Amino acid sequence: MKALKTLVASAVLAMSTGAFAATVLPGSETSLQTIINNAYGGSGASPVSAAPNVNTDQAGAELFQIEASGGSIATMILEIAGNANINTFGIYDPYNTATQLQLFSGSASSGAQVAITVDASNQFKAVDLTNGGILGNMLFTSSTFGYYLSGPGGTFFSQASQNGGNEQMVSYRGDGDTVQFPGRAVGVWGPSSYLLGWEDTSLTGGSDKDYNDMVVYVESVTKVPEPGSLALLGLGLSGLAFASRRKQKNAK
């Protein structure tokens, strides 16, 4: 019984914090901490001291669902990678990672915005809010999706498990601070919005681990657990229920 409780606790912990935690280094370019800090401290914005710490305040988000409105907006904050003109960014189906819907091409720049919608049949659509036009439609297995970054270094996914266990993306969740991102008005960074910082070189292939190669703000999304975590939790809860019934039976 004690072992089962430990199993359930481990599953809940994995879902709430993510299976891995990345160490973000300053690097030789504008650091991710500086990029985040720059959204604070201005007129009407929360003080810089309220900014999340890039190493201790990670949200551990890997998979997402769009909230009840069925729409989400992704905003390019900054891209300073050497592959900035080549890298692409989008969403993918975690049950079939080959199913991908591109949101930003290599020509995207700071301030670019794309709207993502999903209908009852799990059909996702991407609309370019900066230049106009529909970027694409893609049918997913479910309403759950992840984000990907693709370039010369390979295609990396928000799920560490899809990168051989490597965290190529770090995430930070809003908590009500008032911030200002490049080209945007001062506004609230709420709990249904995340800042995603990416590393476009494999962590096992010479990465500088600064996670500033692409930084994207996504809103109106909810963090969801990985399918494996759900299965583990379900197994643990089933075991607890069985053990409880057995204990009651033996007590009679």
TrEMBL record:
<feature type="signal peptide">
    <location>
        <begin position="1"/>
        <end position="21"/>
    </location>
</feature>
<feature type="domain" description="Ice-binding protein C-terminal">
    <location>
        <begin position="224"/>
        <end position="246"/>
    </location>
</feature>
<dbReference type="InterPro" id="IPR013424">
    <property type="entry name" value="Ice-binding_C"/>
</dbReference>
<dbReference type="Pfam" id="PF13448">
    <property type="entry name" value="DUF4114"/>
</dbReference>
<dbReference type="Pfam" id="PF07589">
    <property type="entry name" value="PEP-CTERM"/>
</dbReference>
<feature type="domain" description="DUF4114">
    <location>
        <begin position="131"/>
        <end position="220"/>
    </location>
</feature>
<keyword id="KW-0732">Signal</keyword>
<dbReference type="InterPro" id="IPR025193">
    <property type="entry name" value="DUF4114"/>
</dbReference>
<protein>
    <submittedName>
        <fullName>DUF4114 domain-containing protein</fullName>
    </submittedName>
</protein>
